[in-house]
Automatic annotation (TrEMBL), chain A:
This is Melanocortin-2 receptor accessory protein 2. Belongs to the MRAP family. Pfam families: MRAP. One of its GO terms (biological process) is positive regulation of adenylate cyclase-activating G protein-coupled receptor signaling pathway. Keywords: Cell membrane, Endoplasmic reticulum, Membrane, Receptor, Transmembrane, Transmembrane helix. The chain crosses the membrane at residues 43-67. GO terms for cellular component: endoplasmic reticulum; endoplasmic reticulum membrane; plasma membrane. The keyword Membrane applies. One of its GO terms (molecular function) is type 4 melanocortin receptor binding. It is a single-pass membrane protein. It is found in: Cell membrane; Endoplasmic reticulum membrane.
UniProtKB/TrEMBL annotation, chain B:
The lineage of its organism: Eukaryota, Metazoa, Chordata, Craniata, Vertebrata. It holds the Pfam family 7tm_1. Hormone receptor primarily expressed in adrenal cortex that plays a key role in regulating adrenocortical function. Upon corticotropin (ACTH) binding, facilitates the release of adrenal glucocorticoids, including cortisol and corticosterone. In addition, MC2R is required for fetal and neonatal adrenal gland development. Mechanistically, activates adenylate cyclase (cAMP), the MAPK cascade as well as the cAMP-dependent protein kinase A pathway leading to steroidogenic factor 1/NR5A1-mediated transcriptional activation. Gene3D superfamilies: Rhodopsin 7-helix transmembrane proteins. The chain crosses the membrane at residues 45-65, 72-91, 125-151, 163-184, 190-215, 236-258, 278-299. The keyword Nuclease does not apply. Residues 56-297 form the G-protein coupled receptors family 1 profile domain. One of its GO terms (cellular component) is cytoplasm. Its main location: membrane. This is Adrenocorticotropic hormone receptor. InterPro entries: ACTH_rcpt, GPCR_Rhodpsn, GPCR_Rhodpsn_7TM, Melcrt_ACTH_rcpt.
Length: 206, 357
């Protein structure tokens, strides 16, 4: 602190030649800076910094988009092995989620599981009936709502469906809190589920 | 010269904006016409931006506290980010108030009390920066665990563990911010502070890229996706989202960190002095970060948005809006929140909102 006072006392008090009500600023730790003999533009650090930052962000964006297009080949092998591992761990952990869910009693779980089967069967049925691709979201929404209205309150349906469809996936929706891609991947809650059930539930949620 | 306190610039740079000529007025610029004069941002802009940031983050906090469905680790980390953003904006507001008081003559600029206040406010600002970095790290780690350890997520990230993690983070940030503010004249504090920033950014980037690669590789495995154009569009969206996350943080905080570095290492260089003259713009950028962060983290969750809608909708029709949750209480898992942003759910939000009358 005393060194700072020394500096402040050493330099003379220079008032600006302008009026008293101008912006003055104190870098009281530093002495005066002379601006003579500059080779480059005086704002070169500012310009250089912002240009560098912009270039970095754009570079990052292009790297990410290139990853989406070409991808990392070695990642494919590791992902498949990871997925196998996750399937195995899921099978091992299958008994656990129900116990850790304190809110749902076993009764409700049984009920919702049957409801889930009902949902899936309904949607599968409707899906097979209509194979068109037009507005898949709208259709699946409509189908789902029909199904849900017939089977109970909407919340329970969403709850049951979401509860049993989740083990590993990345949300693809625009409004996702993850916000990663828009790809919804489902894995079957049981290893015994057929692949069609998975695809149909995927279509619902997509 | 070795006793320079770079963080005192924060206050002294403002404190110099006074109309009171005193013996201690020192200008470090000659009257040369090529001087880099301080770029001035009007105080009204400061106050507006700071107030907007504080209100928005407060809204996020209130929504998470009020809705029991949002008492999840994921939302607690988002709240932690909101708190650190609020602290940053609060710092700016208090600093401006302090300067106005100085201008009106209620406070001197050299008193011990003011210096202590300056130190306290500097440490609040550094706390805000460190809190932001660690909150972003916690959010990224939480999402990573959700994706890669989805089945064991309940056991890994319980509510208590999340609270413990947050307590540790904030204690560490508070301790380091006080230490940095007190010992900022040492080189040993400035260097770790400026190295921490890019290190954390790179780590968060790596986490997100790994998650991103998983999403992309799973997409390839699903045969039922209609066209490859959908691939491109959806993956492009993921790339854009990720770039926005990190780009916003980088663009808002990096200028200030560079300022600290330059103030420590080359204060007398004219180029550095010209960079330091745009300090107020850097401060405004930090406050803008406080406004943008809730938009890209908190408001992307439909549950949170529906809570807002209900808060504003029910407030008009029913003053007893504390009972928001009771009609629709269902214990949802984090998985459901993470991908509960189904179109179905967002469609039904309007019907649920309509039920609040």
């Amino acid at each position: 602190m005393s060194a700072l006072r020394l500096i402040s006392n050493r330099t003379s008090q220079q008032a600006l030649s302008n009026s008293d009500y101008t912006w003055e600023y104190e870098y009281y730790e530093y002495g005066p800076v002379s601006f003579e003999g500059l080779k480059a533009h005086k704002y070169s650090i500012v310009i250089g910094f912002w240009v560098g930052l912009a270039v970095f962000v754009i570079f990052m964006f292009f790297v990410l988009t290139l990853l989406t297009k070409t991808g990392a080949p070695h990642q494919e092998n590791t992902e498949s092995s990871e997925k196998r591992f996750r399937m195995n761990s899921f099978v091992a952990d299958f008994g656990r989620p129900l116990e850790s869910e304190r809110v749902f009693s076993r009764q409700i779980a049984e009920e919702s599981r049957s409801l889930f089967h009902f949902c899936i069967n309904e949607v599968e049925h409707l899906d097979k009936a209509q194979q068109s691709q037009k507005g898949p979201d709208l259709e699946s929404n409509i189908h789902f709502q029909e199904v849900s209205r017939s089977s109970g309150t909407l919340e329970e349906d969403l709850n049951c469906l979401a509860k049993y469809n989740i083990p590993n996936f990345v949300n693809t929706e625009q409004n996702s809190s993850l916000g990663e891609g828009d790809l919804l991947i489902l894995q079957p809650p049981r290893v015994l589920e057929s692949k069609t059930a998975m695809q149909s539930s995927h279509r619902i949620l997509d | 010269m070795s006793t320079e306190k770079p963080f005192n610039l924060i206050l002294s740079a403002h404190a110099g904006q006074t109309s009171i000529p005193s013996l201690e007025n020192i200008t470090d610029f000659s009257l040369n016409i090529t001087d880099c004069n301080q770029v001035v941002v009007p105080e009204e802009v400061f106050f507006t931006v700071a107030a907007a940031g504080i209100l928005e983050n407060l809204l996020v906090l209130v929504a998470v506290i009020r809705n029991k469905n949002l008492h999840l680790p994921m939302y607690f980390f988002i709240c932690s980010l909101a708190i650190s953003d609020m602290l940053g904006s609060l710092y700016k507001t208090l600093e401006n108030i302090f300067i106005i008081l100085c201008k009106m003559g209620y406070l001197t600029r050299r008193g011990d009390f003011e210096k202590k206040l300056d130190d306290a406010m500097d440490s609040m600002f550094i706390l805000s920066l460190l809190g932001s970095i660690f909150s972003l790290l916690a959010i990224a780690a939480d999402r990573y665990i959700t994706i890669f350890y989805a089945l064991r997520y309940h056991n890994i990230m319980t509510l208590q563990r999340a609270l413990v993690i947050l307590a540790i983070i904030w204690t560490f940030c508070a301790g380091s911010s006080i230490a940095i503010a007190l010992f900022s004249h040492e080189v040993a504090t400035v260097i770790p502070f400026t190295i921490l920033f890019p290190l954390m950014m790179i780590f968060i980037l790596c986490l997100y890229i790994h998650m991103f690669l998983l999403a992309r590789s799973h997409a390839k495995k699903i045969a039922s996706l209609p066209t490859s154009a959908v691939h491109q569009r959806t993956n492009m969206k993921g790339a854009i989202t990720l770039t926005i996350f990190l780009g916003v943080f980088l663009c808002c905080w990096a200028p200030f960190v560079l300022h600290i570095l330059l103030a420590r290492f080359c204060p007398h260089n004219p180029y550095c002095a010209c960079y330091m003259s745009i300090f107020h713009v850097n401060g405004t950028l930090i406050m803008c970060n406080a406004i943008i962060d809730p938009m890209i983290f908190a408001f992307r969750s439909p549950e949170l948005r529906s809570t807002f809608k209900k808060m504003f909708c029910c407030a008009r029709y029913n003053w007893n809006w504390w009972k928001l949750n009771e009609g629709e209480y269902y214990r949802s898992t984090p998985m459901q929140h993470h991908f509960a942003e189904l179109k179905i759910l967002t469609q039904n939000d309007t019907t649920l909102a309509g039920n609040c009358r």
